[in-house]
Structure formats: structure tokens, C-alpha cells
């Protein structure tokens, strides 16, 4: 009976993957019309002007934290990282954000399944998150893509945390703490 439950959960997850891909990539043409927002330009400007460009990432990292604060620093570093890879190609910035959103969305399914043990609830929760404005509206800003990466790791850590108490294994708890911080 347990094997059937696991196999049907995996089958439902495999059905969910193309649905989530389709939902998220269907909005790509809409968000590409927005272009960079004023916030995106300001944070990109901050990345290019704050700190030395001597090739030392940690030097730039700590300078950005000192000048912009910890809350804004991760956004400055995220858009700077995208800039260093894609050299101003806005389409690739948004595709990266959509891929991170897909990862965050798909990580909701195992979290809800592990906690509530209801496949239909996990399936519908994941679909609801994929189409909700609160998760899609952030795509208007390029710098908010880093939030999806945080959601993905947070969900994985919550699953680890749940299993660490269920099976009383400290290794899972330490792994969860390491991934979260």
C-alpha cells in the first residue's frame, strides 16, 4: 500500500511538471514587454558603481552590504550576477527568473505532500501558487527573481526539518540549517 502511495505521488508530480512549465512560460511574452523597471536600473547602477572592480568578489560583496544594507545587498548582487552572465540581455534575465519560479513552484508539491499527506491538496496548492498574482507579479521586477531561489531552499529546508523530527536524525536538522543559512 505504501509503494502505491509513493508511486501515485510521483506520477502526479510528473504530470504537474509540464503544467507548471506551460503556465509559467505562457506569461513570458507579457513580462518581456515591461523591460527594466526604475528599481532594476538603480540596483544595476549600484552594482556597477559600488566597490572596487579588482576581481575580488568578497571585497565587492562586503562593500555593497556596508553601503546598501543586507536587505538590498542580495538584490544588487543578484542583478549584478545576471549582468555578468547575460550582459544586458533582458530576455535571458526573465527566462532565468521563470526557471527559478518553476523550481520554487515545484518545491511546494513535496512540502505539502510530506506535511498533509494529501496528493490532491499538494497538486492543487502547487497549481494555485503557479497562477496566483502574488507569485507571478514579482516577475515584473528582475531583481525579485532571487526571492524564488529563497523560496525553493526554504521549502527544501522545511521538508528536511520535518523529517529530522519525524525520524529523530540530527544530520537532517544540520543539513537543513546549513541550506537555510
Walk me through this protein's architecture.
The protein is an all-alpha fold. It is built from 11 helices and no strands. Helix 1 packs parallel to helix 8 and helix 4 packs across helix 5. The protein is flat, with a radius of gyration of 19 Å. The two termini are 38 Å apart. The mean pLDDT is 87.
Short description:
The protein is mostly helical.
Radius of gyration in whole Å, from Cα? 19 Å
**Helix-strand category:** mainly alpha
Distance separating the two termini: 38 Å
What's the total helix number?
11
**Percent helix:** over 70%
Question: How much β-strand is present in the residues?
Answer: under 5%
Order of helices and strands: HHHHHHHHHHH
Global mean pLDDT: 87
Q: Count every beta strand, where a strand is a DSSP E run of 2 or more residues.
A: 0
Task: Tell me about the largest β-sheet.
Answer: none
* Net shape: flat
